[in-house]
Automatic annotation (TrEMBL):
It comes from Modestobacter caceresii. Keywords: ATP-binding, Hydrolase, Membrane, Nucleotide-binding, Transmembrane, Transmembrane helix, Transport. It comes from the Bacteria. InterPro entries: AAA+_ATPase, AB_hydrolase_fold, ABC_transporter-like_ATP-bd, ABC_transporter-like_CS, Galactose-bd-like_sf, P-loop_NTPase, Xaa-Pro-like_dom, Xaa-Pro_dipept_C. GO terms for molecular function: ATP binding; ATP hydrolysis activity; dipeptidyl-peptidase activity. Pfam families: ABC_tran, Peptidase_S15, PepX_C. This is ABC transporter. The keyword Transmembrane applies. Residues 649-877 form the ABC transporter domain. The chain crosses the membrane at residues 608-629. Gene3D superfamilies: alpha/beta hydrolase (3.40.50.1820), Galactose-binding domain-like (2.60.120.260), P-loop containing nucleotide triphosphate hydrolases (3.40.50.300). Belongs to the ABC transporter superfamily.
Length: 947
């Protein structure tokens, strides 16, 4: 950290008594401020002090022996410390959790990350968190931690250790805690309770004795196969290693013969999965049914059967936008673990497998996990149990939308857990007659409500889901006279009949606005596998239904609509056609769970109010002290925001207006996280350079606030010493050499020469012998690199560059790209303003797009690219390709349809995606995928054009 100026000296003419009085006032006030700052739990920044060790660890025996690729992240502080095992998600590797590992290591933990069997460079095959394999590997890693001098031990061979992970990694943390008593705390995220329930759900029942808000039925002997999610899950792990074609090589005939070898066919179809996992998937995919053999495989890898063994305090984090592992999975885990008397905390957040959480929410979740381990591994004071969820809104979630932070609601206890009161429900009247529902032959065309991994397709396709006429029955509430905030899984009862006594159906709860616009919260549906029901429409069977667990606000004036349909594109559907009837059971109502709590802005906001109150007191005391000191000097105290070290830059409602009425920047808000490389994009006149000049304190904003590492940034602010910049020209002196320019610049800062890291900056910028020649002889590219080296002097924590690649040739641009990414990987942050969109796309992790002084959108490069343009159409049946090409080509304004290995790529032009999808479905063509596909340049032009 760079040195900040010291405090101003008190004038020598002041007497001793006034000085002493002022000091006493300040000393009395400082302890209160210290308590508030200590309460923020923000550790000292020491990213560069975290060290790593790589190793390969043998695990298992005999044919099941593997080598696990691990990395240890060691904290800067010496002495034994608690340890954390950090597991990755399915399809990832240890690299997927590297950033989280560094955060925990900076908090003082020894962190071990590893690539699970069959992933990364670890050997072996995927056992799907089998207790005999992946779970046993966790115990092997705990054994390793027990041998290290830098890990705190509870006893011989027993390290103080916690386990955390998301999805696949979350399940292994639960299972490991059940099988290894040495684990002291766990923090599983967006994971499952039962793979059977997750992949063969059946919500044709009501869990009446749970008392928790998101209790959904556990699958019995049958359920509706979640076909698309299962295919994605299996497909991501079935690709063979190496070049993807075991036995490939030699002439064509020999290669074909090799590929037809049974061993090679097995490898090509099953990839890295164990044979029993592969066989179970193939059975389920071909039949769509839950056989006993499949159930055995799924339940073996499910925490549901071993929750009664878990005694480690458990933090459960589950996403509200998740059609793979819904809130009901976390609810079941919470009930099972709490039944042991184990401490459980539940957190629901905006995000999940269908939508990545915002950067703010991600940071809050990291803090939740670290705080949990602080309490249960390190003995810190803090919250233990409790419940937190996003404040309900009436907004739908859409594909490609960049999600922002939101308010949260805090509750002392998760309803129905332990001694907590059961959840409250609000009863709402439903109306509607008995209606015929058609099941089409082969299940096609099918309703489209969810694209697995992308959430609700409704908001992406002109704001509505695709319900097929005649395939659903709808029942509606009266217009709401006041808003209803649903937190959990609503329930109701329907009356159903079917010609053969069986039916597959899907229940949904829509939010219908006064203008008729319907939103399906989070795109979630509740599958119903109905057997033994009445065949007589005059005497239907009453079926209790648990609808999807959601967090959603139904506004006053809206209505609630329960829809029961016969098809859904994401699930396996019956092959034969039939006509069933669906109505409401006599006296049926909709029971909507509500969970009142205390609304909070974001994590840490309560501390902010306390901090502001303390600052107000300090301000008053400072005013009194200034009177005692004769108002000799005005001193400005800069107080850091609680998350300042993790948020190097934050714009909040910043506006810059000039005297002639011109507004260069209007209400600009965004934030940049540590380790990000953020690209600031926009056409000429968008306000990019004005924003950067305000950031550097060269000009003042008219309104709003700019924070650098939590401190207000302005002309002369000490925190700007942590910022290095290159904006609007190099500013080099032409009659001096490059080296002399760098030396002169650093001398002007008044800091010690050793702090400049001169040679490191010169090396990073790639400067050679010409550095000692006069700048007037330099090419434009050389001047540019000297200016970048100047910005890097002192290795600033925040580096701001305006058009850094101007004047550089392609090799130099490529080298600069690597330099900037590597610089950010050290824990620093880089902001680039550039018009070279391809370079932004290849260099930056995040992007803010501006136009006419306003922010158009913010998000990762992948999110921005995925907001529109050309689309990729994946077909359920490849034999429909020719027909699909003809249908798409016949739409108005559609460009050429290209065939690819993934499907059809087409620029729809003025035609909406909803229109294209409807045309394909009406032609009897099954669509498995419809996703945006374009470059950053296309996204940029589209966004700027829309602005």
């Amino acid at each position: 950290m760079r040195n900040a100026p010291g405090p101003a000296r008190i004038g020598s003419r002041l007497g001793a008594r006034p000085v002493l009085a002022a000091l006493i006032v300040l000393l009395l006030a400082l302890p209160a401020l210290a308590v508030v700052l200590a309460g923020t739990d923000q550790p000292a920044r020491a990213a560069e002090d975290v060290t790593t060790e790589e190793a390969r660890v043998p695990s298992g025996a005999g044919a099941d022996a593997v080598e696990l690729d691990i990395t240890l992240y060691l904290p800067p502080a010496g002495g034994p410390a608690p340890a954390v095992l950090l597991a990755h998600g399915f399809g990832g590797s240890k690299q997927s959790v590297a950033a989280d590992a560094r955060v925990l290591a900076r908090r003082g933990y020894v962190v071990l990350t590893w690539s699970a069997r069959g992933f990364g460079t670890s050997t072996g095959q995927i056992g799907l968190n089998d207790p005999r394999y992946e779970v046993a590997d966790v115990s092997t890693l705990i054994d390793l931690l027990a041998t290290r001098d830098d890990v705190l031990l509870d006893g011989p061979g027993d390290p103080r250790v916690g386990v955390a992970g998301a999805s696949y990694g979350g399940a292994v943390s639960l299972l490991a805690a059940a099988y290894d008593e040495r684990i002291d705390a766990i923090a599983p995220q967006i994971t499952w309770n039962s793979l059977t329930t997750a992949f063969f759900p059946d919500q044709a029942a009501v869990v009446t004795d749970a008392g928790t808000p998101a209790a959904v039925p556990r699958t019995g002997d049958a359920g509706v196969f979640k076909r698309t999610w299962a295919g994605l899950f299996f497909g991501s792990g079935s690709l063979p290693t190496g070049d993807g074609r075991p036995g490939a090589g030699g002439d064509g005939a020999a290669s074909l013969a090799d590929d037809l070898d049974p061993a090679v066919v097995q490898a090509l179809t099953c990839g890295r999965f164990r044979a029993d996992i592969c066989a179970a998937y193939e059975t389920a995919a071909s039949t769509g049914e839950l056989s006993p053999e499949v159930a055995v495989v799924l339940e073996r890898s499910s925490p549901a059967g071993v929750l009664d063994r878990i005694t480690a305090p458990t933090l459960l984090l589950q996403g509200t936008q998740d059609s793979l592992f819904g809130l009901g999975e976390a609810d079941a885990n919470a009930r099972g673990i709490a039944a042991n008397g184990t401490d459980v905390r539940m957190v629901w957040f905006a995000g999940g497998h269908d939508a990545s959480p915002s950067s703010r929410v991600t940071a809050e979740l990291r803090d939740e996990v670290a705080d949990w381990f602080d309490v249960h591994l390190d003995g810190a004071d803090g919250e233990s149990g409790g419940f937190r969820y996003p404040a309900p809104t009436g907004l739908g979630s859409g594909v490609g939308r960049v999600q922002g932070g939101s308010q949260t609601v805090s509750v002392d206890e998760y309803p129905g857990l332990g001694d907590a009161e059961p959840v409250e429900s609000r009863l709402l009247e439903l109306g509607g007659s008995t209606q015929p529902v058609v099941t089409p032959a082969g299940g096609s065309p099918a309703a489209v409500t969810t694209i697995p991994g992308l959430g609700s397709i409704g908001a992406a396709l002109a704001g509505s889901t695709l319900e097929i006429p005649g395939q659903s029955a709808a029942f509606e509430s009266p217009e709401l006279t006041e808003a209803v905030e649903v937190v959990g899984a609503p329930t109701t009862t329907v009356a159903v009949s079917a010609p053969d006594g069986t039916a597959t159906m899907f229940a949904k709860l829509y939010d219908v606005a006064p203008d008729g616009t319907a939103v399906l919260p989070s795109g979630l549906v509740a599958p119903l596998e109905l057997t033994g029901i009445s065949t007589d429409p005059a005497a239907p069977t009453e079926v209790p239904v648990t609808l999807p667990a959601i967090v959603h606000r139904f506004e006053a004036g809206h209505t609630m609509r329960v829809v029961v349909s016969s098809t859904d594109q994401a699930y396996a559907l019956p092959a034969s056609s039939e006509v069933s009837t669906v109505g409401l059971a006599e006296g049926a109502a909709l029971a909507a769970p509500v969970v009142p709590g205390e609304v909070q802005a974001t994590a840490g906001s309560a501390r902010w109010w306390v901090l502001l109150a303390v600052l107000a007191v300090l301000g008053l005391l400072g005013w009194l002290a200034a009177g005692l000191l004769g108002r000799r000097r005005r001193r400005r105290v800069s107080v850091s925001a609680p998350d300042g070290e993790d948020v190097p830059l934050r714009f909040e409602g910043v506006t810059k207006a000039y005297g002639d009425g011109f507004v260069a920047v209007r209400d600009l808000s965004f934030e940049v996280r540590r380790g990000q490389v953020l690209g600031l994009l926009g056409p000429n006149g968008a306000g990019k350079t004005t924003s950067l000049r305000m950031l550097m304190g060269l000009i003042r904003p008219t309104e709003g606030r700019i924070e650098v590492f939590g401190h207000a940034a302005g002309p002369g602010a000490p925190v700007l010493s942590r910022l290095g910049s290159f904006v609007e020209g190099t500013g080099l002196q032409p009659h001096l050499s490059g080296r002399d320019n760098l030396t002169l610049y650093w001398a002007a800062t008044g800091r010690p020469p050793a702090d400049a890291h001169m040679e490191e900056a010169i090396e990073i910028a790639g400067l050679g012998a010409a550095l000692d020649k006069r700048v007037r002889s330099y090419s434009q590219g050389m001047r540019q690199r000297v200016a970048i080296a100047q910005a890097m002097l002192g290795l600033p924590d925040l580096l701001v560059l305006d058009e850094p690649t101007n004047g550089l040739d392609p090799p130099q641009i490529h080298a600069m790209r690597d330099v900037l990414r590597s610089y950010a990987e050290t824990g620093r942050t880089v902001i680039i303003s550039s018009h070279l969109l391809s370079e932004i796309e290849q260099t930056c992790s995040h992007v803010v797009v501006m136009a006419k002084g306003q922010k158009i959108v913010q998000g990762t490069v992948e999110e921005i690219v995925g907001t529109g343009g050309a689309v990729l159409v994946g077909l359920a049946d490849p034999t429909d390709t020719d027909r699909a090409v003809a249908v798409l080509a016949g739409l108005p304004g559609v460009g050429e349809v290209e065939r690819s290995s993934e499907g059809l790529v087409v620029d729809l032009g003025p035609t909406t995606r909803a229109t294209a999808l409807t045309a394909l479905v009406e032609a009897g063509i099954g669509v498995d995928q419809l996703t945006p596909r374009r470059r950053l340049e296309d996204a940029f032009l589209s966004l700027v054009g829309e602005s």
